Amino acid sequence: MSDVSETPLPAKQAMLRLIPNLRAFAVSLCGDMERADDLVQETLLKAWDHIGSFQEGTNLRAWLFTILRNTYFSECRRRRREVEDDGSKAAVLAVHPGQQGHLDMQDFRRALNLLPVDQREALVLVGAAGFSYEEAANISNCAVGTIKSRVNRARAKLSEMLDVSASSDFGPDAATEAIVARAGSGGGRRS
Amino acid sequence: MRGAEGVVVPEVGLHCNFNYNNKENHMRDSNGTKAGTCADATPPPKSGQTVNTHIGSLLRQMFDGVVHEPIPDKIQDLIKDLERRPK
Questions:
Q1: C-alpha radius of gyration, chain B, whole number
Q2: Contact yes or no for A28 and B74 at CB 8 A
Q3: What is the pTM for the complete model shown?
Q4: Given its phi and psi angles, is residue A5 left (phi above 0), alpha (psi -120 to 50 degrees) or beta?
Q5: ipTM exceeding the 0.90 mark
Q6: Considering CB atoms only, which of A24, A105, A166 is closest to B58?
Q7: pLDDT tens digits, residue range A135-155?
Q8: How far apart are CA A60 and CA A82, in angstroms?
Q9: Using an 8 Å Cβ cutoff, are A95 and A159 in contact?
Q10: How far is residue B51's CA from residue A159's CA, in Å, rounded to a whole number?
């Protein structure tokens, strides 16, 4: 867990220190920096106005993340965005590594944004923000088992989308191998 | 930790004799036909472990990249406004 959340500062000061973390979570959720900053602003306003409801000594970081994700989902419901996607987009669209055998960050971001939002949220909370499964479950208002299952499904889908389930994905891709094999059968096989 | 061919490999979940940059090496290890050199003889890695490690690393890179960005002006302005509010 970040040392920031454990700093014995007044809650409002500690809250400001957590802005970078909030931005990172927001952009992971919505996939858009500008929208993420709007979300952070709205979160800060709500948190500032309701700081009295925060219990000193509890996890401020988790409290802020909860406000942010609730704000995001409320906004999505309002805008009727496609957050209810069941993963069918992901099934249709595979994101193949942009360079031979290497997953770059751009491929990864695209793949992450294709995950259903509940899975993306669980993966980011546990895998990037450093929350425990229990903390992530509290933030997402669901059972610990649900979070674990979402994280597993997210990882599996990402592997599938990035086409990295085979060992060959860390070496030449299939197209390259085929070309090399063809060149090899025509003579001049590589050792 | 270093692989058999001197390649640095992640610590988590990887057999010390494993070099994931070398497909042939990996396949031989997976089939158990190539003896490991570790004294503790941990089981050979599954590609899933490597994939999860890689995904985790990209995820943290992405998150930390944003964490280390400067706070944009519009949020700085909001902070100033909030701090000016009457207590």
A1: 22
A2: no
A3: 0.66
A4: alpha
A5: no
A6: A105
A7: 999 999 999 999 999 999 999
A8: 30
A9: no
A10: 7
